[in-house]
Target: GAF domain-containing sensor histidine kinase
Amino acid sequence: MLALVAALTLIVTGEPLQLLWIALLVVASLPAVIAPADHVSAPLGRFAEVVVTGLAAGSIASAAIQNSTLDAGFGAWAVLPYLSVPLLTAALRRRPTEGAALLGVAAVSLVVGGTLVGRVILEPGFLAAGGQWLVLGAIITFAADTMRQFMQPAEPTPQPYAEATRLLTQLRSVARSLPGATLDPGGISEHLLEELRLVKPADRAAVLSASGGGRLVVLAQTGVERVDWEVTLDADSAIADAWASQQPQVASRSQARSSRRGDTSSLVVPLVAGVRTIGLVILESDVANAYPKETVGEITWVTEAAALRLEAALLFDDVRSLATNEERQRLAREIHDGVAQELVMVGYGIDNAQATLPEGAEETAEELRALRAEVTRVITELRLSLFELRSEVDRNGGLAAAIAEYARTLGTSAGLRVHFTFDESTARLPAATEAELLRIAQEAITNARKHAGASNLWVTCTVDPPFAEIEVSDDGRGFADDRPDGRYGLTIMAERAERIRGRLKITPRHPSGTTVAVVLGSSARRDSVRDSVSAPEGE
Model:
């Protein structure tokens, strides 16, 4: 704008001396350019620009008349367009009060410039130019915000919890109307394999989905024996190719980690929802060329319809896991900051009371010691509860490591000797399933610590996706005491097992104690090539 008004000024006046007004505009504009967010210098700079523009209009209009370029004061049009700069800046910064003040100063400056500087106040061209740009300035000042709101719909006020409630309510309604009223990824995957078996029987089949970290998890699997599938996406395999290309891949070798002899045909079909790959279907047959183009087309048609169902189930699992973890962390914070701190203060009060007891009050001292011991016990229980609430399955550590850490911590607090036996595959279960198995193991270990009166605890963890078995045994007194809180814990474990389509088994242990086991899927293969890890007693 400065370059424009400078050129127009030179054209209408023919006097380079008039460019001094443009130099003054440059100086006046510096505060708004250097410190645009400053609440003092930037507005003062804009007021200075308006004053200079009004005074320059009178001087340039007079010079144009003397130069016989434009009569009747029309030369003011050369510099008045610059009024739009400070006025538009104030409007864009949503300062209507400042804009109105700038308009008033502009009107006064035009009068002063036309009267004292150029003496053209009564020229019709000067009055027309000044009036026109004052009207345009008013439009810029008062209509800019309204026009912006009209052109761009106003952003709604963020209400994440209200929006989340609305979406989850819709999701609950949809879930209830689904066949079988389920959004379980494992169940949907098993149903998909049954559908594909009717199209093309296979010796082995599986449904895999992403689990973060560039790895896949097995949601469902069929076959005579369990297969150790390739679950990494950076390997040279049809699995990685199908995931990256989103196209079915046919191979003449198995997609398992261990090679198979003889003829083998494998088909890997990506499950694509929109533009995102959410999983894979693997089919294998022990014959050559088992999947011609026509068969691949039929299988793809079935998987395309199942991809949306599986995506909905996986998203629902993510939402449920996120909500559960958030609630557990919230409860942990409230317990730590609330009742735990208050109990600590009660303990300090009891200590002070003991310290100030008069001599001879042995009976009162004994009661205070017993009360202090009980408060200490409750604080210890709260700390263990906080540890349980905050315990999670680490993405890199695995389920067995999370269970071992919890059992070791609780065993130490209760004086239990804890024995571990782990047989964990390199493949992982879905994150939601691992979380539920961890909670079941935690409840079983807690029940043994609180109610069994045991000296030893045996924890066995076998994971071979989609199979898993967690077993917790103790040498305590079992459930003969029929503790209500212990029975409530069993109910919680049964509900968790049912949620992941597992089976909870509770049996007496010979010669004493109880065994609690949760089993997910069918029995694992016994010819495992992996090593079992058994921790020494007490470790």
In short: Residues 524-539 have pLDDT under 50 and may be disordered. The chain has 14 helices and eleven strands. The radius of gyration is 39 Å. Residues 10 and 16 are 6 Å apart (CA to CA).
